[in-house]
């Protein structure tokens, strides 16, 4: 078992960012521990986003929950590839323990077992007219060498490349078409964080709710090619690109990975619907805001026992 759970960010004004994510974006409050504020969705993960107050903006980690055997595989492969890694015990809501690994371009991924879940928040979007994300559906990174990053994710994490386009290498860790992707950007940073909504109606209600608060999309609504998911991208006032998404394709184990030539668009099109423009310049600035920072020293990870 392997599932994307949460992202942990550091930034100035974490408390205000937390308030905005609740009042405007639609997340629920998952509490505060020290100077870190947590946000959850309607699903069973104890939190989806951690916002730690800090003088600088950076990504502390992206967290996956997994089974002990998958954790063991990642730990062994990380050691075999000589990647920086360390055992960790989570002090975030839900707890759990496991390892944290730094990939080749500085991306910091945390893998936990034994993390607790919470009772989902009931009430379907269409009935309640609620705007509330369910969970994270993907976290995408910019990469200097997206192809090498995808290969490393396969070799070390046991993930699988689902599709390659001219812009991205999409990577899955379960039946969801992608839980992460590496954008062919020429630099390394957080590209965006996508929140799963109940359905298309919930995405559209989210867009309306954002408009009520004075926020226009930076790109969307639209429907992507690879993954077939609906999207609406925004630039959050505290910096990162965030997305309402829904209906990402479920793929079988033998899904044939597409190549860039399999994913082309007619002239002037970059998605299936063709109803929105992309604010490339604003998105580029936002995508460069959150780099990665390793706050821990590499340490031996005990193998075959204890992890
Ligand atoms: Fe996305």
Features:
eight-stranded mixed sheet; 17 strands; 2,3-Dihydroxybiphenyl 1,2-Dioxygenase, domain 1; 20% helix; nine-stranded mixed sheet; binds fe (ii) ion; 2 domains; single chain; 6 helices; globular; alpha/beta; 307 residues
Description:
The strands form two sheets. Strands 1, 2, 3, 4, 5, 6, 7, 8 and 17 form a nine-stranded mixed β-sheet that branches. This protein folds into two domains: 2-116, 2,3-Dihydroxybiphenyl 1,2-Dioxygenase, domain 1 (Roll); 130-290, 2,3-Dihydroxybiphenyl 1,2-Dioxygenase, domain 1 (Roll). The mean pLDDT is 96. The protein has six helices and 17 strands. The protein is globular. The chain has helices at residues 14-25, 68-80, 125-128, 146-157, 200-212, 280-287, and strands at 2-11, 28-33, 36-40, 49-53, 58-66, 85-89, 97-102, 108-113, 135-143, 160-164, 168-172, 180-184, 189-196, 219-223, 230-235, 241-246, 291-292. It has 307 residues and is an alpha/beta fold. Residues 138, 140, 192, 194, 231, 243, 245 line the site of fe (ii) ion.
Number of strands: 17
Strand content: 25-35%
Q: Which molecules are bound in this entry?
A: fe (ii) ion
Share of helical residues = 10-25%
